[in-house]
Amino acid sequence: MAQRVARQNNIDDRNHTFWTALTISVVMGIVGAAILYFLGEWLFAVAFRLPANLRHEMVAAVPLLAAIVPLTAVISVLAGTLEARQAFIALNLGQVTGVIGLQILPLAVAIFGHPSMPMLLAAALTGRLIGVVVMIAATAHILPFHGRPHIHQTEIGPLIRFGGWMSVSGLVTPFLSIVDRFFVGGMIGAAAVTAYTVPYNLTQRFAYLPLALSTTLFPRFSTSDEENTRQLLNDGILALVAIQTPIIVIAIVIMHPFFNLWLGHALSTTYYPVAIILLIGIWINGPNYVPHNMLPAQGRPDIMAKFYLAELLPFLIILWFFVTWLGIYGAAISWTIRSTSDAIFCLIATKSLKVFLRGITPTFPAVFIALISVFMNFSDFFSALLEVLAVLLSIIISWSIAPTKLKTTLIQLKGLRYYGR
Q1: What is the pLDDT of residues 244-295, one digit of tens each?
Q2: Cβ of 290: how many Cβ atoms within 10 Å?
């Protein structure tokens, strides 16, 4: 939908697309909610293998879990509309409001003596609804709303064809993202899920940068000609390699002391290797966010959707093998293998693999030195020396491969900061 709205200059056309897409998404969300509602008890009893004393409470919360599905569908339509109109401040305001509500309201409910899972989920759902209200208000102003809500029949076909493939990606991708925890829980146990989930959730924060950049480029990809699109694609890939590499290198060298300070020595020795393995996957896959967003913006959401379907069975086999062999470290390795395969396929599909390799290959030594400093049993002084070398090398190399526009922007920002003094 964002791709169509980004190309529409007429208010009536944008409203036709918006209300039709919203109706279709809500209907599909209700179907998904119904499926989750009827499968909920089986999921908690068999798939998650919850103890009997916890199972009753989670089953009681299934209706609230199901309600999240259509709410998520509504959020996706609103977010796509705001992205298409390049209203990123309004989009971020709505999302941040929802996240704050999601965090604060369940905490408040627990403090006031209602820590049951249904109550906590109801509070979390209310928090997300507050964010949705903000996004609706922003959409009403920025789209803007015009006339009465209605379904435009001529929009249904293109939206279903385009949205069908987006829905396939939307269904398969979350499954690929969480199935590793199913395997860890089923093959190792519930305690291992926590040992894997903590570093996983932490490292996924490093994906926010490529996600944010690729999101801002989506409307430009939708409206640019072939030459400008290619330039945006190449610059975006190189910019993400240049920006991300020093961040990943720094994260690698501080991950062990960070977990040690946060959780203590006993847990940190288990958690930090998982985090570092996942960081390698984010480092490789991060620049892929740009071509990944370019494909649907150019009207080809089917390419990655078909690949996700094709990789599903091989990934499950790889996941089973590595979890059996290496436990939670095997799950992290499997995730990194999948992220790398996603990146390589998408880069090949968009004919940008050479640009990616030209950017990321020179950064290998910095990442390699960082890994050696962490995993090899050197003296503290020599390890610290290697870590400083890795960080400095990553910064120097990243500057050398950064696109000219990024360098110019950074120099201008530095000049503005100096002038402000």
Answers
A1: 999 999 999 999 999 999 988 888 899 999 999 999 999 999 999 999 989 8
A2: 28
Work out the angle at residue 166's Cα, subtended by the Cα atoms of residues 164 and 170, and round it to the nearest 5 degrees: 115
Q: Which residues of 257-268 are buried (b: 16+ CB within 10 A; e: fewer)?
A: ebbbeeeeeeeb
SS3 51: coil
> How long a stretch of residues is the chain?
421
Distances, alpha carbon 309 to alpha carbons 173, 177, 380, in Å: 9, 13, 47
Question: pTM, whole model, 2 decimals?
Answer: 0.77
Contacts of 40 (CB under 8 A, 6+ apart): 58, 59, 62, 65, 66
Helix-helix angle 11-42:52-60, to 10 degrees: 150
H helices present in 264-363, as ranges: 265-285, 289-297, 302-326, 328-349, 353-360
Residue 295 · residue 351 · CB < 8 Å: no
CB-CB contact of 193 with 181 (8 Å): yes
Cα 375 to Cα 297: distance, rounded to the nearest angstrom: 41
pLDDT tens per residue, range 124-164: 889 889 999 999 999 998 888 887 877 777 777 776 776 67
